[in-house]
Design goal:
heterodimer; A: 240 residues; alpha/beta; Rossmann fold; 4-stranded antiparallel sheet; 9 helices; 37% helix; B: 327 residues; mainly alpha; ABC transporter involved in vitamin B12 uptake, BtuC; 16 helices; binds adenosine-5'-triphosphate; binds magnesium ion
Chain lengths: 240, 327
């Protein structure tokens, strides 16, 4: 059974249709890549799933429940975690306290939250900066902290929005390992948005491609990479 | 992480010292009165700090809670001759109810609009309590013969209220609520994405904050024996000083408001008495101006307040001493 389904989801910002009648399913345990050129509506789709904005029309079904009109915090509690492309660390709190705050979503005691925090710090390789202020982390750390906060809420579905952008090659490899482990060790289903083709093609089971808010194709990485519309959307119509 | 002991030895030391103070020194009633005001301001500053410093909801209307607490002690006495001491029960609760109702309106507002909303609430109450004479005796205020002539019993009562306020903050900041307050302060969107119901936790913060401000108000009536709307709902003397006490000592720190209270009461007293009679009388009218400058100075040079920026202050003083030694 699919864990998440978007059914004919549309989002208008005034005159601009940022997401236009998009439908897709995410199967339990898979990594679905969501690709598209800049401004094609990927982040907006995430913002619709966790209800940062209401949809203009369409439905979003998570584990059989219609979550289209649920509030952002309720959706997090139902088990959808997300990261922000423009990172949102709790700046004046330490890295550990950022994760603590998220861990309290499932743990009611200080000790319980602390245990989860220790696990997540280790899993995301942030233990060595646990006591630094989050606002002072370099970009790689802040991207990783986004993942750590989301994991601390114990999601069953994780939305990753360009968590590999701006990383150097070594950091990139580490990030890929962590994302793979999220699925294999923690059993979390993932939707991943990434511009770096090396990452998205390697990591995804399936890819859903959009341009100008509209679906252009869906399939295996190899199929999508060979699709002429995708090539055109990414490289312009001159490329043949 | 808050790994440090819940209550440190120095904190117990400070509390015992405060308790023992009247037994160690033979204070004049004037100094006793100042001590009571310092502790009263610790309560108000800490209460403000919980909502503004920790939760990021900067209230400009803390006089609303203080005043309603004072009248919760005063009105039953005025109408039915109920002992004002019941205020120590009703003051906090009435303020919580006010805070909840106010929250429905002002938590829809963010940033400066929230500040203005709380300010307006206190002003509306000030005017309304001046008008409704049947309930409040209007601008004539409510007068009551205080229970004791000695100030010391009052000192211990307000000290107990202050201990309750500080303990509340300490307990809360180790729990889910505290972490959620800080998250909301830092980034409300990020907070909601990790499952935090921001409006619920803002209400909780408002409830705790208004409770202790209301207790301070009830105490004020019991101790002073007189309240009127202009005093207890005052913008400059209550709401603004709450902010000053909170920020001078250090926003979002446990001991900031205590330091802030000492500094503010000393400053207020210095101005009120025109530098203890050494300056011309018109100087006492300058206090609002000087407090304004002080806010600007703290925000520019010590954004963490005296407690938050203690390391910075120490470093600066230290460097100065070193360079003086070289001369
Ligand atoms: N809050 C908003 N108000 C108005 N327009 C918006 C808003 N958010 C996004 N848009 C517009 O919607 C379109 C899709 O933006 P979105 O951020 O979803 O693209 P994206 O695929 O994530 O792009 P990128 O790869 O650059 O991150 C853009 O034209 C953007 O300007
Ligand atoms: Mg985006």
């Amino acid at each position: 059974m699919s864990i998440l389904s978007l059914k004919n989801v549309t989002k208008n910002f005034g005159g601009l249709t940022a997401v236009n009648n998009v439908s897709f399913d995410v199967e339990e345990g898979e990594i679905l890549g969501l690709i598209g050129p800049n401004g094609s509506g990927k982040t907006t789709i995430f913002n619709l799933i966790n209800h940062f904005f209401p949809v203009s029309s369409g439905d979003i079904i998570f584990k059989g429940n219609n979550i289209t009109h649920k509030k952002t915090h309720e959706i997090a509690m139902l088990g959808i975690g997300r990261t922000f492309q423009v990172v949102k660390p709790l700046k004046r709190l330490s890295v550990a306290d950022n994760i603590m705050a998220a861990a309290f979503s499932r743990e009611s005691t200080f000790e319980g939250a602390k245990r989860v925090t220790r696990e997540v710090l280790e899993f995301t390789h942030l233990d060595h900066v646990a006591h630094q202020k989050a606002g002072g982390l370099p970009i790689a750390g802040r991207k990783r902290l986004e993942i750590a906060k989301a994991l601390a809420t114990r999601p069953t579905l994780l939305l990753l929005d360009e968590t590999a952008a701006g990383l150097n090659p070594a950091e990139l490899d580490e990030a890929i390992d962590i994302i793979r482990a999220i699925r294999s060790d923690l059993g979390i289903t993932i939707i991943i948005v990434e511009h770096i083709m090396k990452v998205i093609m390697n990591i995804s089971d399936r890819i859903h491609a959009i341009a100008y808010g509209t679906t252009i194709t869906e399939g295996s990485p190899a199929e999508v990479a060979a699709n002429p519309t995708v090539i055109e959307a990414y490289l312009g119509s001159d490329y043949h | 992480m808050h790994n440090d002991k819940f209550i440190s030895k120095s904190e117990i030391g400070i509390f015992i010292f405060a308790l023992a103070l009247p037994f160690i020194f033979d204070f004049s009633p004037y100094i006793q009165g100042l001590l009571i005001f310092v502790v009263l301001w610790v309560v108000l500053g800490t209460s403000w700090n919980l909502l503004a410093g920790y939760t990021g909801q900067v209230s400009f209307g803390h006089a609303a809670f203080f005043g309603i607490g004072a009248y919760a002690a005063g009105v039953p006495f005025f109408l039915f001759k109920v002992s004002p001491w019941w205020g120590l029960l009703f003051g906090g609760i009435t303020a919580v109810i006010l805070g909840y109702l106010l929250g429905i309106v002002v938590f829809r507002l963010r940033g400066p609009y929230f500040a203005l909303g709380t300010l307006a609430a206190a002003e509306i109450l000030r005017i309304a309590f001046g008008q409704e004479e049947w309930l409040t005796n209007g601008h004539n205020g409510i007068l009551y013969m205080t229970t004791w002539v000695s100030k010391y019993p009052y000192y211990f009562i307000i000290l107990a209220i202050a201990a309750g306020t500080i303990l509340t903050v300490k307990v809360v900041m180790r729990r889910r609520e505290g972490y959620y307050f800080l998250s909301i302060r830092e980034d409300e969107d990020a907070a909601s994405a990790i499952g935090i119901n921001a409006s619920k936790y803002k209400n909780i913060s408002m409830g705790l904050s208004s409770f202790w401000a209301g207790m301070a108000g009830a105490f004020y009536f019991i101790y002073m024996g007189f309240i009127d709307p202009e005093t207890v709902f005052a913008l400059h003397n209550i709401s603004i000083i709450s902010i000053l006490v909170g920020i001078i000592g250090g926003v979002g720190t446990i001991w900031g408001p205590a330091i802030g209270a000492i500094i503010m009461v000393l400053l207020q007293e210095t101005f009120r008495s025109a530098f203890f009679g050494f300056a011309p009388q018109w100087v006492s009218g300058m206090h609002a101006f000087v407090f304004g400058l002080l806010v600007i100075f703290v925000i520019l040079y010590l954004p963490g307040g005296v407690v938050g920026d203690w390391d910075l202050i120490r470093k600066k003083l230290h460097l100065k001493r070193k360079s003086e030694m070289k001369k």
